Amino acid sequence: MDPVKFDWNEFAKNKQKLMKFYSRRDRILARVTTIFFFFGFFVALAAVLSIPKTYNIVIFSLYLVLVFIRRVGLKTRAFGQVTDSEGNPLSFSLIKVFSADLKNQITQRATDKYGRYFCLVPNGSYCVTIERKLEDGSYTQIFASEPISINAGIIKKDFKVGLPIELPANDSSAKLGE
To answer: What tens digit of pLDDT does each residue of 86-113 get?
Structure first.
């Protein structure tokens, strides 16, 4: 049976290093697959140079196409990530984007359970604030950035936020560095 709504208490209990494991696993998997890809590429190159048969040329040509696609073609969706000083993702935190000139809020995005966010904005200069979700469901601001210049229409900056050891659940005025 599926839950009706998200259980924040259960999330807080299971948060201990669990999220860091998945993001580390993704990075390791990406490195391992890249190593295997280039190992295969060099084996195919050696096969073409030593025995230039049709089969080896076709395999090497496929690798060249895949290298081209990896370099200029099908790229993964660009996203940014919010982590604390220990590298743990700040799950379900809010990213608020403000115009650097007018100081009005442009957009707001929530991070996923891995601390990732996707934020499209028009080119320009923006300030970003990050609010952490507390166990009682409220938010407290923990970070405010300097103006960021955006030229590609997307904010994909990784934010590493130094957090105090424990933020009080009922004090929504706690700020980073106070």
So the answer is: 888 988 999 999 998 888 899 999 999 8
pLDDT reading at 16 higher than 50 = no
- Please indicate, yes or no, if residue 1 is contained in any of the structural domains: no
Nearest to 114 by CA among 80, 153, 71, 154: 80
Between 62 and 25, the more confident residue is 62
The pTM assigned to this predicted structure is 0.55
Q: Name the domain count of the chain.
A: 2
At 25, the amino acid letter reads: R
Q: How far apart are the C-alpha atoms of 103 and 101, rounded to whole Å?
A: 6
Query: Of 49, 72, 95, which one is at a domain's C-terminal end?
Result: 72
Residue 113 lies in a domain: yes
106: containing domain: 80-161
